[in-house]
Amino acid sequence: MMPGPLLLRARVALQSVWCFVNGRALILGAPSCCPRGTRQHRMRFNWSLPAAGTDCRILEVRVFQRVAPARFHERSKLDTAERKDGEMAKEIFDIIILNGRPAAGKSEVIDYLKKTPVEERIRRFHIGEFEEFDDFPILWERFEDDDIYERHGKARLISNTTYEYEGETRPGYVFKDQFFWNFLIEKLNLFYAKRLRDVPNYHDTHTAIFEFARGSQHGGFAEAYSYLSDDVLTRASMIYIKVSWAESVRKNRRRYNPDKPDSILEHALEDKKIEFLYKESDWDAFSSKDPDHLIVGNHEVPYTIFDNEPEKTDKPEVLGKHLEEVCAKLWAIRQRCSSSV
């Protein structure tokens, strides 16, 4: 690697910078300017290897962070692109919403992304450091809360332990009030709003991944999306993981672990309960207005389909290849939306 220009993304004034690149200590010259409190600036440095024995301080580097520790990249590998106006264009989605039938493969996609190094994840999927905003843990915790109340002689607040279907009373948690499905969406809105409040420039580094399933029995996707906040809908892009009803049932049975009903990857529903809640879906109607966008009030949310039948999410190399294709298409749709604003 020959000495040459590097680009630094930073937010504070710097006199000189040491960093560690590809296993070698490098010293960078001072930037021309980067006033404290200003927006991100692009700065060039010429660097050279320090003399042997030099007493130098090595500054560890991390991708995208604007204060030390920070990450430096050669321009050819920089994970941002330069706009015509000289600003830096982000290369990550702000929000990805993952939807699909139960057991469609949403959690498996997230698990795959967790195991993919961030640099590769950005390059292949436009997904940076990410956090999950999943309604299932909230849902299950409310069932457990009610169990505690009942165990101490109190009335259950949110859920019942039986439901009526096909003329029979069947065991299984259900909500007392259907509105609780929309309450879950509002909780996701709240968690997300707190992240924006507490982490300055959150989306410079992070992609938020929302995950939920909905059936027509409790309002479907159309109703769920109507409760997403404007902040979410403005920034969101969506991937629908598509499987048939029969495939959803098959995979739901396969992942069932009765010892871990609260597990993200191993929770499941009894056949009759999944039929009651999820057999009927409004996805086709909800997505029919536009081939590339979900119409939600005044918002147009870009979306694409991850076709998971035959199953791809059980084969990491196949999953990754298809997800890369899906994300590339979604990124192109998102960029067209941005350029038309």
Topology:
Layout: E1 5-10, E2 17-21, E3 24-28, E4 41-48, E5 72-74, E6 81-82, E7 88-89, E8 95-100, H1 106-114, H2 118-125, E9 129-134, H3 135-151, E10 159-165, E11 168-175, H4 180-198, H5 202-205, E12 206-212, H6 220-226, H7 230-235, E13 236-242, H8 245-255, H9 271-278, H10 283-286, E14 293-296, E15 299-307, H11 316-340
Parallel strand pairs: 8-12, 8-13, 9-12, 13-15
Antiparallel strand pairs: 1-4, 1-5, 2-3, 3-4, 6-7, 10-11, 14-15
Short description:
This protein is 35% helix and 25% strand.
Q: Which short descriptors sum up this protein?
A:
341 residues, six-stranded mixed sheet, five-stranded antiparallel sheet, 11 helices, 35% helix, disordered N terminus
Walk me through the structure:
This protein has 2 domains: 5-79, no CATH class; 95-340, Rossmann fold, CATH 3.40.50. 35% of the residues lie in helices and 25% in strands. It has 11 helices and 15 strands. The protein has helices spanning 106-114, 118-125, 135-151, 180-198, 202-205, 220-226, 230-235, 245-255, 271-278, 283-286, 316-340, and strands at residues 5-10, 17-21, 24-28, 41-48, 72-74, 81-82, 88-89, 95-100, 129-134, 159-165, 168-175, 206-212, 236-242, 293-296, 299-307. The chain has a 6-stranded mixed sheet with strand order 9-12-8-13-15-14, sandwiched between helices. It has a 5-stranded antiparallel sheet with strand order 2-3-4-1-5, with no helix packed on it. The longest helix has 25 residues, at 316-340. The two termini are 41 Å apart.
